[in-house]
Design a protein that fits this description.
By secondary structure, this protein is mainly β. The chain has one domain: Tachylectin-2, Chain A, CATH 2.115.10. Helices cover 0% and strands 38% of the residues. The chain is built from no helices and 21 strands. Strands 1, 2, 19, 20 and 21 form a 5-stranded antiparallel beta sheet that branches. It has a 4-stranded antiparallel beta sheet with strand order 3-4-5-6, with no helix packed on it. The protein is globular. The N and C termini lie far apart (38 Å). The N terminus is likely disordered.
């Protein structure tokens, strides 16, 4: 199975064709704040317990046909006042063109796909695969903010992170052409940054993002940045989550961070790859402050074997404050993919 796109944050090709090689540009890298840890936790460092994702039903909740393509990626999902809002990317085998989609659901099971591409109005000129959402938030004033990633131009270095705003969830979305975050030359994220997971905090915003270096492009890591206004961001100078964070299943790469609020603290869901680059498995970390993380369990919370007929896990998304099912996962199939709904079980913590 082969398609025409891969995502830099994965650090490696997961049955997909690699993106353009990446470089880096400095963007105000700063040391970690006092009390934050840069050390990766070993499997025995985490709390005694487990978190699992249970797939609901025996059919996907979204297929490529719903977005007029073969491949359907659930890039960012948010739950607001009883409605799930999903922003994704779709493409097919016959074309290198990609387009965004916007879908809503009252329960995470039945989705209504909008007729318009929410990414078409961004105003960004990006290389393949175009803009890919990472996080979408509704601000206290009712406006909407999207953090997305993309390669600045064909043949350029790897992806940067951008910020877009809209008056409503459906749009129109307009992006600032200046990235809010880029890889730092010579650093662990020099190949590029992507899949930002952004959440509100008491002091502003916390972002976890994926990246890899030019010297080790197949070894994805997860770093962080903070902001008081969501516009200007300060990066940590070292990754928070290293390969091997939970053990063997993520020994080669960690990518696609997704934050989920708990009481108290946070859970982090991510894709992990082992040394053999087998299909991704979903790992889980736990933190009281979003900066110091420990592995919840050396066993993955979700594998392809947990999804009926799956050939592998690709993109994941989490509705961080949902009052019901909250986990969306893209399952790879035969020249296509589909989106499945899952529920997060934290009873083992």
């Amino acid at each position: 199975m082969q398609a025409r796109v891969s995502f830099a944050g994965l650090g490696v090709v997961i049955g997909l064709v690699a993106c353009t090689p990446a470089g880096g540009s400095p963007t105000g890298s700063e040391p970690l704040p006092s009390g934050a840890s840069t050390a990766s936790a070993s499997p025995t460092d985490g709390p005694a317990g487990s978190v699992s994702v249970h797939i609901l039903g025996d059919e996907p909740v979204l297929v490529g046909a719903a977005v007029n393509n073969d491949w359907v990626l659930p890039a960012a999902v948010v739950w607001v006042e009883g409605t799930y809002h999903l922003y994704g990317v779709a493409f097919d085998q016959e074309s290198t063109e990609h387009h965004g989609y916007y879908a809503t659901s009252p329960d995470g099971t039945t989705w209504t796909v909008g007729a318009e591409d929410p990414l078409a109005t961004l105003g960004l000129e990006l290389g393949d695969p175009g803009p890919v959402p990472g996080s979408v938030l509704q601000e206290p004033d009712g406006s909407w903010v999207m953090y997305l990633w993309g390669v600045p131009a064909p043949g350029a270095r790897g992806a940067d992170l951008y910020r877009a705003t809209a008056p409503e969830a459906v749009g129109p979305w307009t992006a600032n052409p200046t990235p809010v975050l880029s890889g730092t030359a010579g650093a662990w994220d020099s190949q590029g940054v992507d899949f930002a997971s952004v959440v509100h905090t008491e002091t502003g915003y916390l972002m976890l993002y994926a990246g890899s270096s030019l010297s080790a492009p197949n070894e994805g890591r997860i770093g962080y940045a903070t902001s008081t206004d969501g516009v200007t961001w300060t990066k940590g100078d070292a990754p928070l989550i290293e390969p091997g964070f939970c053990g063997g299943f993520d020994a080669r790469s960690v990518a696609i961070p997704r934050l989920r609020e708990t009481d108290p603290g946070w859970l982090l869901f991510y894709n992990g790859l082992d040394e053999n680059l087998d299909p991704a498995r979903v790992g889980v970390g736990q933190s009281s402050d979003g900066l110091s993380w420990s592995c919840v369990s050396p066993e993955p919370a979700l594998t392809a074997a947990d999804i009926p007929g799956s050939q592998g896990i690709h993109t994941i998304a989490v509705a961080a404050t949902a009052r019901g099912p909250e986990f969306l996962v893209e399952s790879l199939g035969d020249q296509s993919s589909s989106v499945w709904l899952g529920d997060v079980d934290m009873s083992g913590l």
